[in-house]
Automatic annotation (TrEMBL):
It is found in: Cell membrane; Cytoplasm. Signal peptide: none annotated. SMART domains: TPR (SM00028). This is GPSM1 protein. GO terms for biological process: establishment of mitotic spindle orientation. Gene3D superfamilies: Tetratricopeptide repeat domain (1.25.40.10). Belongs to the GPSM family. SUPFAM superfamilies: TPR-like.
Length: 226
């Protein structure tokens, strides 16, 4: 501020916002991220503006998750305050998405689609969540980003469960399992086995369910995860 560096001030405000978000001080975080947004717009800095919109989305997303953790409920059956917070997150992600499309930033589009999928899932809009996660998946494949691809499959599996499409969920979870093995991520592999066990139970394929739950158990024991 002293040297009149507006772009520097914007970036510093954004960094403060992100740090306050991690500390759980969501309302203060929004103020700082909003400052980042205002200065970026005033300076015609489109990249900064996109980043600020994404960061504000993240603050509301984190706040919504934080509020809903205190109430163990299924996606969709949320108190009004949580719904409004997640809808705000979604609106900022949408604004970010249209701007990064304009800028031709595919990687940033992928992140926006993933977060839009997650917020729509929490809001109980499962069909919308699926559409966003499919976009996320396509971009992850474009970039050869296996970790993002794995997350997209997992999220697609979760959303289809709530639509009662257990057979489709099982296919997505199997892809999650394959990728977790490729990535040598045992914790995620265990999680995929657990999801597949539950899905096979829903499909009344109890033999397979037992196999997957046993695999989950073995990895949990190996990792010493009580």
């Amino acid at each position: 501020r002293t040297i009149g560096d507006r772009i520097g001030e914007a970036k510093a405000s954004g960094n403060l916002g992100n740090t306050l978000k991690i500390l759980g001080q969501f309302d203060e975080a929004v103020v700082c991220c909003q400052r980042h947004l205002d200065i970026s717009q005033e300076q015609g800095d489109k990249v900064g503006e996109a980043r600020a919109l994404y960061n504000i989305g993240n603050v509301y997303h984190a706040k919504g998750k934080h509020l809903s953790w205190n109430m163990a409920q299924d996606p969709g059956s949320l108190p009004q305050e949580v719904k409004e917070t997640l809808q705000k997150a979604s609106e900022y992600y949408e604004r970010n998405l249209s701007l990064v499309k304009e800028l031709g930033d595919r990687a940033a589009q992928g992140r926006a689609y993933g977060n839009l999928g997650n917020t729509q899932y929490l809001l109980g809009n499962f069909s919308e969540a699926i559409a966003f996660h499919k976009e996320r998946l396509a971009i992850a494949k474009e970039f050869g980003d296996k970790a993002a691809e794995r997350r997209a499959y997992s999220n697609l599996g979760n959303a289809h469960i709530f639509l009662g499409r257990f057979d489709i969920s099982a296919e997505y979870y199997k892809k999650t399992l394959q990728l977790s093995r490729q990535l040598k991520d045992q914790a995620v592999e265990a999680q995929a086995c657990y999801s597949l066990g539950n899905t096979c139970t829903l499909l009344q394929d109890y033999e397979r369910a037992i196999e997957y739950h046993l695999k989950h158990l073995v990895i949990a024991q190996e990792l010493g995860d009580r």
